[in-house]
Write a structure and sequence with these properties.
By secondary structure, the protein is of the alpha/beta class. Helices cover about 50% and strands about 20% of the residues. Helix 1 packs across helix 2 and helix 3 runs parallel beside helix 5. The protein binds ligand C2E and calcium ion (3 copies). Ligand C2E binds next to strand 2, helix 2 and strand 6. The site of one calcium ion has 5 residues, from strand 6. This is EAL domain-containing protein.
């Protein structure tokens, strides 16, 4: 049994080594990848369920690496966070998203672009200045820009964050809480934060129709948000049955494969034109 344990340990450490090697390789690859223009933003349409109107899109980062193939954000964002590359990457995403928001605002005034902000990016001392500078440089209407922060990021250093969020609100930026319901949440904190919307995590939407617990949670989130005068966005909507449930409960907005998958910017331009023949 003893030697078995040792072999197991060796196997384990070998596996750890491989994970670390990929991590280091991706870390170095990312910097080259940006220089080579291998990072792209995809955009997933978001719909207003009451007025059946396109409200905008969420920007989702993609890496098409010549060396590693397609690498997903769930893998490279945490690496970028831990090595500090998230600052450059995050700025690139913000600028790109704002430039597209300007373009689409001309096609369809009021269309928004939502950008995911990672914890380390939000905590950086000059994050507010960076946002202000990019808004100024790109000429985006601040109200066309939405920042998505996760519940856990908002909750840590709550006191400090209220000021930062307030400053963003003064700039005119829209704020939403991403992955709502998955983190540690004291619902009470919501009323202290100057936020506009919460996004129900897609893990609750997935089994909405078959799992009565998930249905109850989604329903509770919607009614609580509404009593706090917050908008609710459902993410990961894949079926008509899910959509029906959400419309019945007066969920404000939704996104998901049922409407459209995330798509390249040019395709989203076509999408906007299709639904906004003026
Ligand atoms: P998220 O913010 O929760 O983004 C939603 C994810 O759900 C996206 O995965 C999207 O492609 C996927 N999705 C959309 N509709 C559906 C659906 O109907 N069903 C299912 N099953 N999934 C759907 P993606 O693009 O792989 O992004 C994963 C995560 O990576 C995002 O989760 C976000 O946390 C992070 N991420 C993506 N882009 C950025 C970025 O530019 N900056 C930062 N900091 N994080 C990003
Ligand atoms: Ca998001
Ligand atoms: Ca989310
Ligand atoms: Ca999520």
């Amino acid at each position: 049994a003893k030697s078995e344990g040792k072999a197991g340990y060796q196997f384990f450490s070998q596996e750890m080594n491989q994970v670390n090697m990929r991590r280091v390789a991706l870390e170095n690859g990312m910097r080259q990848g940006v220089a080579r223009g291998e990072f792209y933003l995809y955009f997933q349409p978001q719909w207003d369920l009451k007025n059946l109107r396109l409200t905008g899109a969420e920007a989702l980062l993609r890496w098409h690496s010549a060396e590693f193939g397609v690498v997903g954000p769930d893998e490279f964002i945490p690496i970028a966070e831990s090595c500090g590359f998230i600052f450059d990457l995050g700025e690139l995403v913000l600028r790109e998203a704002c430039l597209h928001a300007v373009e689409w605002d001309l096609l369809c005034p009021g269309l928004r672009v939502a950008v995911n902000i990672s914890g380390r990016q939000f905590r950086q001392h000059d994050f507010l200045q960076t946002v202000a500078r990019i808004v100024e440089e790109t000429g985006v209407r601040a109200s066309s820009l939405e920042l998505e922060l996760t519940e856990s990021v908002i909750m840590e250093r709550a006191e400090k964050n209220i000021h930062a969020l307030q400053a963003l609100k003064w700039m005119g930026v829209r704020l939403s809480i991403d992955d709502f319901g998955t983190g540690y949440s004291s619902l009470n904190y919501l009323k202290h934060f100057p936020i506009d919307a919460i996004k129900i995590d897609r893990s609750f939407i997935a089994d909405l129709v078959t799992d009565s617990d998930d249905a109850a949670i989604a329903e509770a989130i919607i009614s609580m948000a509404h009593s706090l005068k917050l908008k609710v966005i459902a993410e990961g909507v894949e079926s008509e049955a899910q959509l029906d449930f959400l419309v019945d409960r007066c969920c404000d907005e939704a996104q998901g494969f049922y409407f459209a998958p995330p798509m390249p910017a040019e395709d989203f331009t076509g999408y906007v034109k299709r639904f906004f023949a003026t």
